[in-house]
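Let's study my pick:
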Amino acid sequence: MVNAAPTESPTVLPKAPEPSGAGLLAAGSPKPIGPFPFSLLAVLLGIVAGVGAYAFRGLISFFHNLFFLGRISLAYDSNQHTPAGPLGYGVALVPAVGAVIVVFLVKNFAPEAKGHGVPEVMDAIYYKKGVIRPIVAAVKSFASAISIGSGGSVGREGPIIQIGAAFASSTGRLARASRWQLATLVAAGGGAGIAATFNTPIGGVLFAVEVLMHEVSVRTLVPVALATATATYVGRILLGSHPAFEIPALGMPVVSRLALLPAYLVLGGIMAVVSAVFIRALYAAEDFFERSIPNREYLRHVIGMLGVGVLAASFMRVTGHYYVEGVGYSTIFDILSGTLDGAGFLVILFAAKLLATSLTLGSGASGGVFSPSLFMGAALGGAYGVALRTLFPGLHVVPAAFALAGMAGVVAGATGAALTAIVMIFEMTLDYSVVLPMTLTVAVSYGLRRYLCRESIYTMKLTRRGHYMPQALQANAHLVHHVSDMTLDPATVMPADAAVDRIDLAEDPGPPFCVVVVAGDRVTGVLPREWVLAHPTRLRAARRLGDAALQDYVLVSKDATIVDLLAALVGSHAQLAVVVSPPGANGETNAARVLGVVTKATLAETLAEGMELFAD
């Protein structure tokens, strides 16, 4: 038995008699911010996200009125159709003009601002230690506002997520937040942005949980909830407290609703196919433009946006509305309110929006995919509802209910955020009657889309660059087991003044050993078998074991968790841990007993065993 110095901590024991807890942090890592200032930081992010959502809408309004109507004004209601502008057919050139400005901004200042934004936030959390350059927020604001304002078929939610996340990253680094805190702040900034944009506080939290957060716990969920709630309150003060889509109540007789539930299952299957097609079409368009027009970003985006402009102008010429330009909320409102009630025309709108969005993002625009998903789901879901009403008049089908379920189905299928889709559509409409059928649609759509296309529209972009995202938030219960539950490597305890010839240098084929060197009541070093066998000359040159002992170790209590052990090894860059029974255990009052050692190889095997719970 060897004595070790008593310590105040029952988890990680120090090498020297003085207590120390520094081994739990990686070298150079900032100390975590305290809970109260961390919460205040989350509230600050919420305020900025709420103001940012308001300012971003103002930017969109400014550019939209300038490009389409030739006037300077911030008055713009996205739920109302844009009137015909003074340019006539020349309006087809408007998106192409905006494309030139967008490419200039993105290419010269922030390439990360290209695309739909959310994948870049995910990439920052999992691959860039939560770091997003501050300039991304400014460039994304203007590039996306110009893309949307000039008629690009993209949404405003992706940009505000990236804008909020970029500000959160910069603020967190200024406050010297630890790595987990910085990742949490980035997720909080993104969730707060989408909450303020759509007036959906719960949906914002769920989006952060399902798409952005690396961990769900009290320490991460509280700041995210604070940020999204604050952002929603600020957004309501600046933008109003009304839901995103104010539609007539969709209440239906219970019997009719139950009879229609199988129809929602079928709708879920249709939305799964739509989601998979949307994902494939978007990246197929991106590949087509890059392959057909390589290294010519301006020409590529101008051609793509010219196609969008011609499509929008054609709709204006034939129907009196642009329909597919911009966020498309006016068309969604028409579908939900029953103004658009022709199944054939709704299918045409769906196909046109799919084409317009693929051209917009595939050629290099900056904007989100959430709004196009809502549009396509509403159009095809509404067409499905109209067809059912025609075929089964006795069921009292309300097409708007199927449009809402379709919206949730495409959002869930395309983005992979199933719970977010259900809750956000409810919060955006405040109609509880469609929650049950919407849940069925979402479940089928999400599950079947995963079968048809494993990656979501967010993770597909990252997978294509070799950055893989976790498919689930997993709790590895093995990590909270105690070190004493592991199979420890054997250790031989020898005093520091012992002669080196007491170690047998013969290559014993038995189990590996490690000599733990002690001086009085404390551990002073280790001599692993691999080192002993590899350095016989250096060992013989030393007179005592204490002279040859290595310091490449940490002391860990048997009561420590595997997480504590892992943190101690990483924080000290040690190669092994000496496991001891803490003072007071087994009747011992002031001594610690060496139980064995844990090498990194043994720890890796233990972690691999814990992952068997998640194996296919």
